[in-house]
Amino acid sequence: MTGGGPGAPRVLVTGWPSFLHGEATAGDVLAMEAVRRALTCAGVECDLAWSPVFRPGGLDLDGADPRDYSDVVFVCGPAHGEQVRGLHRRYARCRRVAVGVSVIDPGDPAVTGFDAVLARDAPAAGPRQDLSALPPTGSVPVVGVLLAPGQREYGERRRHGAVEDELTRWLASRSCARLPLDTRLDPRDWRLCTTAAELESVLRRLDLVVTTRLHGLVLALKNGVPALAVDPVGGGAKVAAQARAWGWPAIVTVPLDAGPPLLDRAELDRWWDWALSADAAGRASAEPPSGALIGELLDVLGAR
Questions:
Q1: pLDDT tens-digit profile of 233-250?
Q2: Cα–Cα distance, 262 to 32 (Å, whole number)
Q3: Other beta carbons within 10 Å of 299
């Protein structure tokens, strides 16, 4: 089957990420991309339909005219439910094929509405490998994010909520794998680390830490990981002071009298680029802790 001439097939690739009220998982998206890649390599013209929530401005099902397509391919996830049945109604004139789906009930109209079903798992059929394993992906930086709570002790100088909002909106625009972390330890909550060693073991595997917490900065540098630190207290406080103590340059402070926006995105961009550079990695790994306060304590106690 090849495209290009009159009457050549044109395929609309769909899946659960195509539905307005669907769900876009990494596996679903990768499987759809695998089908697109295979069709394109075979010379078949195709489009991918995305939910306007997931990919604003992209082609969505409302904009994908059934008259423009010879075939509709539904990829991944369960072949089940009203949204899949609605796909059959909208694209009734097209040949409809499901591939890489889970068939729960072979008699479900969502399943029987397809002209062909190439399932990854179905009753009385052997399983086949999921399509998400096929398309290659590139690597992006893995970034741990450690954010401070309100810290009421700073009174009217607190800017934590507004700083967190601006910082996380900026961070969402960066191409990276974001890993929310917390310095709190609690053996009762599986989402938190139980020991400091557990947290530091995670930190050592990161490319970068973005933090508004003093210990987010310190533990990153202790483990040789560059940090982009933002002090959420107007005029700067303990985070900025700790950056000075370590001689660490990637610190952003909020002027005491600053109005929104509190953070300069261009400044964040500059420090982001630097923090992901070889220079920052080398500097972080060469920052030994001094332990000066321990020495002073021993002097006070007459222990040395």
A1: 999 999 999 999 999 999
A2: 40
A3: 10
Half-sphere exposure of 108 (CA within 13 A, CB side): 19
Rounded to the nearest 10°, the torsion over CA 55, 59, 60, 62 is 150
Give me the amino acid identity at 5.
G
Residue 93 CA to residue 10 CA, distance in Å, equals 13
What is the overall mean pLDDT for the chain? 94
Question: E strands within 77-126?
Answer: 95-102, 116-121
For 246, the 3-state DSSP assignment is helix
In the predicted model, is pLDDT for residue 1 greater than 70? Answer: no
The torsion angles phi and psi of 25, rounded to 5 degrees, stand at: -100, 160
Q: Identify any residues that bridge with 293 across adjacent strands, giving them in sequence order.
A: none
Q: Give the helix/strand (H/E) hosting 180.
A: strand 177-181
* Contact call for residues 80 and 110 (beta carbons, < 8 A): yes
Range 261-281 burial, b when 16+ CB lie within 10 A, else e: ebbeeeebeebbeebbeeebb
CB hemisphere CA count around 161 (13 angstroms): 2
